[in-house]
């Protein structure tokens, strides 16, 4: 399931063997509104509610930006932490979303189904006029952004789900979802030693498979960025900040795995990826919300983020990030991640929590 706030947090997140709840409001938004439980594509009708902390929501933010859907689908951003049963709009003035006019995402789920019985998850697509959640099926949501919202794509938008590569993308996505996206949670929420060790081995076996796949090709499927790269990136970008320590995925840091580290930096430095990442929100969410794993609520100062800006060298493998298209333009001012929450060429050591490489601090002077 997408990142969730649920009453189960009263008893904590750790389970003897973690199993993700994959029941969603599975309605879709389709180009002509056809299909069972389908809603029509219509610019301005829906609002995408996200939390930058959440890897599943981060996918939707990236795809929306790469495709240039900002004018067609507005975006509301929840804060990095939530209470026991809802994500909240505590970043907005008065703690109320300025478009939906609600303080809690739970209100939109309750508008759709009074007494909604499952977790309140992001990302969620909400109909503005009714205030009802249309869908929180995060996997289908981004595929529909690519295939159903084409008339609202920007000029030069990439094809993130090309028809001729869909079987291979789907196959890669299934393994990445099961063993990596969900695998880190299976490690972190394991309640027994045996469950943890099984999850740990499965995770790093798959990271090895990905390493071998990416050693001689720039992207996961084909020679351009696809949905598969988006889905892997949002786990990799959180790996050293939270999964390595907080979830005990500690055979290696991402920064100690040369192929995957270079691949992740390549994507991070591609417009539409790194400019959506809020490291401060990421760390606050995991270390504060998962109280049974980190009961003190202390948020680590590290790791040093400056490495995300180092040259990656992946251009030598060829490939065209956007195919025949172009990168997205600058991030809209109201959607920018605060500079203090991202690495820069002059990232202060007191924010990093560690020493900064001198050539990054002074590269303008070289």
UniProtKB/TrEMBL annotation:
Pfam families: GST_C_2, GST_N_2. Keywords: Transferase. The keyword Disulfide bond does not apply. Residues 162-286 form the GST C-terminal domain. Residues 317-355 are annotated as: Disordered. It comes from Pedococcus cremeus. InterPro entries: Glutathione-S-Trfase_C-like, Glutathione-S-Trfase_C_sf, Glutathione_S-Trfase, Glutathione_S-Trfase_N, GST_Omega-like_C, GST_Omega/GSH, Thioredoxin-like_sf. The active site is at residues 54, 185. The keyword Glycoprotein does not apply. GO terms for cellular component: cytoplasm. PANTHER family: GLUTATHIONE S-TRANSFERASE OMEGA-LIKE 1-RELATED, GLUTATHIONYL-HYDROQUINONE REDUCTASE. The record marks 243, 286 as: Lowers pKa of active site Cys. Residues 331-348 have a biased composition (Basic and acidic residues). Glutathione binds at residue 87. This is Putative glutathione S-transferase. One of its GO terms (molecular function) is glutathione transferase activity. It comes from the Bacteria. PROSITE patterns: GST_CTER.
């Amino acid at each position: 399931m997408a990142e969730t706030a649920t009453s189960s947090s009263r008893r904590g997140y750790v389970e003897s063997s973690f199993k993700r709840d994959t029941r969603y409001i599975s309605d879709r938004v389709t180009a002509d509104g056809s299909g069972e439980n389908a809603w029509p594509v219509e610019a301005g009708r829906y609002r995408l509610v996200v939390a930058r902390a959440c890897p599943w929501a981060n996918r939707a933010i990236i795809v929306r930006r790469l495709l240039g859907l900002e004018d067609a689908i507005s975006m509301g951003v929840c804060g990095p932490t939530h209470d026991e049963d809802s994500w909240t709009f505590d970043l907005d003035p008065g703690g109320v979303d300025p478009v939906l006019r609600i303080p809690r995402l739970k209100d939109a789920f309750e508008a759709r189904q009074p007494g909604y019985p499952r977790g309140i998850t992001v990302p969620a697509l909400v109909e503005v006029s009714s205030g009802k959640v249309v869908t929180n099926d995060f996997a289908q949501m981004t595929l529909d952004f690519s295939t159903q919202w084409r008339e609202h794509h920007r000029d030069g938008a990439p094809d993130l789900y090309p028809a001729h590569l869909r079987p291979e993308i789907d196959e890669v996505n299934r393994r990445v979802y099961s063993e990596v996206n969900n695998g880190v949670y299976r490690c972190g929420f394991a309640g027994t030693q045996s469950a943890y060790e099984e999850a740990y081995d499965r995770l790093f076996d798959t990271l090895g498979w990905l390493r071998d796949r990416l050693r001689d090709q720039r992207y996961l499927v084909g020679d351009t960025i696809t949905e598969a790269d988006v889905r892997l990136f949002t786990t990799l970008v959180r790996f050293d900040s939270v999964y390595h320590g907080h979830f005990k995925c500690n055979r290696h840091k991402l920064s100690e795995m040369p192929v995957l580290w270079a691949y992740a930096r390549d994507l991070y430095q591609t417009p539409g990826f790194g400019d959506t990442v809020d490291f401060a929100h990421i760390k606050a969410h995991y270390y504060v919300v998962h109280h049974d794993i980190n009961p003190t609520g202390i948020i680590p100062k590290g790791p040093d983020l400056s490495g995300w800006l180092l040259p990656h060298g992946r251009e030598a493998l060829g490939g065209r990030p956007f195919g025949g298209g172009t990168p997205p333009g600058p991030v809209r001012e109201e959607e920018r991640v605060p500079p203090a929450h991202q690495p820069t060429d002059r990232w202060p050591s007191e924010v990093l929590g560690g020493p900064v490489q001198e050539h990054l601090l002074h590269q303008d002077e070289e």
